Amino acid sequence: MASSLKDLRGLRLLPLWRRRVPRYPVYMNGDPQLRLTMPHFWMKMVRPEKEIPENQVQFIVHPQMSVIDVKNYLEKVYKVPVLDVRTKVFAGKDITQQARGHVLAKEEDHKKAYVQLADGESFEFPDLFEENKPATEKQAKEVKKQERTGLEDQRKHWDRLTIPTWFR
Amino acid sequence: MAGALRSAVASISRCCHKSVAFLSRFNQHSLLQNSLSVDSRLMLPSLLHTTSPQHGLMEFFDIKKNWGEENVKSGRPWRMDELRIKNNSDLHKLWYVLLKERNMLFTMQHEYEKQSELLPNPERIEKVEESMENIMTVIKERDEAFNLLETGKTGDPGGRYVKNYLGLRQYKRNTEHLIPHYMNKFYFLLYPKNVSKRTEKYIALYKEEQRVERRRQQRSERMMRKRLIQKFPHLQDKL
């Protein structure tokens, strides 16, 4: 038992995006500049809650990411010119039960990055469901359609409603 | 002769690539190998490189065709064996492709959830993460092999058991530091050489508690064995 537990000690239980980034090597004066060859950082673009200027974009980023990291990430990986980056850490809100008001759980803390694009670049957050309606709307339509056909069926076979549908 | 064959091969290769690849493999020792291999190489689809188009910030979103779709088809993650035969620069490029893909999926998932929808095929995130982890393990293997060749050690810093300020044994992984630990005064606050006499009493009590617990467990196991043998005598020497 104990030996098997020992083997499990090194098992990685967290998904990669939740893990801490690996330690940077210790830097001493005169060493070459540290370079990230394989960054573990992630960023996700989020829709701004308020109206913002055209050249601003908002991201939720890896909690260990610094302002310089965000700037380098966008410039080197995505080839987007960046003028300025600011970050802010938000505490997750409490999820309360509506009826009694006690706290059930807490939302995740997150770091948000406010990016200002350079060189007159602008970006508008696209509307994903402009042309193709989302799946739930389609399903709701189907349910309505089924209900309508059921009513029509009832009207048609008003005298045989007690008999199962297969025998009508 | 060679010219005629080349034109013939070119005409076949227009029809299908696979047959030419097969032909070139078949005639490896013939004198016409060069003319054949050049033609086949030009026609092989695996050597046709295309870089992904750069869309700037729109790379954070899926292609427009998949917006609002119910199902999005995707392949399987990269396997370890496939990654082992790739060189380092290819793995480096693939890492960034996967990084962008994961960012895209996170963005889409967040936006879908904001619109109270579900992301189609969310297992894509796990697939990308699996291939990323496979790349990490392959690179670790290469690092270890390189270190073993160069220094005879794997390069793993390892760890050691130390006594902490409570006087309890604790495993500690070795990490890089600017000064050795015996020159660091904060290290001796956490891991002092000698534990104070006040804590010694409690260590003794803690050890006693552990000892008692262990004995209680052993006794309960012994009693259980005894009871089992009373019930099932044929288990006499087997337990």
UniProtKB/TrEMBL annotation, chain A:
It comes from the Eukaryota. Keywords: Mitochondrion, Ribonucleoprotein, Ribosomal protein. InterPro entries: Nucleotide-bd_a/b_plait_sf, Ribosomal_uL23-like, Ribosomal_uL23/eL15/eS24_sf. Residues 130-156 are annotated as: Disordered. Its main location: mitochondrion. GO terms for molecular function: structural constituent of ribosome. Pfam families: Ribosomal_L23. GO terms for cellular component: mitochondrial large ribosomal subunit. GO terms for biological process: mitochondrial translation. It is found in: Mitochondrion. PANTHER family: LARGE RIBOSOMAL SUBUNIT PROTEIN UL23M, RIBOSOMAL PROTEIN L23-RELATED. Belongs to the universal ribosomal protein uL23 family. This is Large ribosomal subunit protein uL23m. It comes from Littorina saxatilis.
TrEMBL record, chain B:
It is found in: Mitochondrion. InterPro entries: MRP-L47_sf, Ribosomal_uL29_mit. GO terms for cellular component: mitochondrial large ribosomal subunit. One of its GO terms (biological process) is mitochondrial translation. Keywords: Mitochondrion, Ribonucleoprotein, Ribosomal protein. The keyword Mitochondrion applies. PANTHER family: LARGE RIBOSOMAL SUBUNIT PROTEIN UL29M, RIBOSOMAL PROTEIN L47, MITOCHONDRIAL-RELATED. Belongs to the universal ribosomal protein uL29 family. This is Large ribosomal subunit protein uL29m. It comes from Littorina saxatilis. The lineage of its organism: Eukaryota, Metazoa, Spiralia, Lophotrochozoa, Mollusca.
